[in-house]
Design brief:
It is a single chain. By secondary structure, this protein is α+β, with helices and mostly antiparallel strands. It has one domain (10-180). Helix content is 30%, strand content 14%. The protein has six helices and five strands. The chain has helices spanning 36-50, 72-86, 93-96, 138-144, 150-163, 169-172, and strands at residues 24-26, 60-65, 103-105, 108-116, 131-137. Strand 1 (24-26), helix 1 and strand 2 (60-65) form a beta-alpha-beta unit.
């Protein structure tokens, strides 16, 4: 397993009860630019992880963005470029807006979480040391949470965050899958359609 060479460990700042035991792999480099050369290295590394012998044990693959980001729009710009580079068959606007759409990389579904220091400390998406993108393979959910208990576990995790002042239920309740990847700065802001 690669160690986090980019500063703060995500497992140390989240309230998710599954985080302490999570198996996390970090992209070896900080992404300082979302140019093709850098993204090509990232894609190659991600592919090596996904096709590697330990992938089914993996709970997250994390990429740190070292690009200058001062706003949600900046975050969206770099995230969108990275996502379309990793999967040039991501889909049309309409395809991303169907209920069962998932981000796919190398035939594997991932849930994606974008965290950044542009969020306030009380946000579940706050990361104090820049910006990270966490790719969580669907098999991680299935391995840790039985399907029959999934809804109850999700509700309980949301309650843990809410008790700590980071309630995000309103944001995700009616959101499309891709809208859950980048949160708006506040729950009063509109959901973000980063793919448009």
């Amino acid at each position: 397993m690669n160690h986090n060479v980019h500063g703060i460990d995500l497992k140390e700042i989240t309230s998710c009860p599954y985080a302490p035991k999570a198996v996390v792999e970090y992209f070896k480099e900080e992404v300082l630019d979302t140019d093709d050369s850098t993204l090509s290295k990232l894609k190659k590394d991600f592919l090596a992880v996904v096709t590697g012998p330990n992938f089914l044990r993996l709970d997250a693959y994390v990429v740190k963005l070292g690009v200058k980001i001062d706003s949600v729009n900046d975050l969206v710009e770099h995230f969108k470029k990275l996502m379309y580079y990793l999967n040039d068959n991501l889909g049309t606007d309409n395809e991303l807006e169907v209920p069962n759409w998932r981000f796919i990389f190398n035939n594997t579904s991932f849930f994606v979480i974008v965290m950044s220091d542009i969020y306030t400390r009380d946000s579940t998406r706050w990361y104090p040391d820049g910006h990270v993108i966490l790719f969580q393979p669907e098999h991680s959910f299935h391995r840790q949470i039985p399907r029959s208990k999934r809804k109850a576990v999700i509700t309980s995790i949301r309650k843990i965050f809410a008790k700590q002042g980071a309630d995000y239920s309103e944001i995700v309740e009616d959101a499309l899958e891709p809208q859950k990847y980048i949160f708006p700065l506040t729950k009063n802001d509109e959901l973000i359609n980063w793919w448009l």
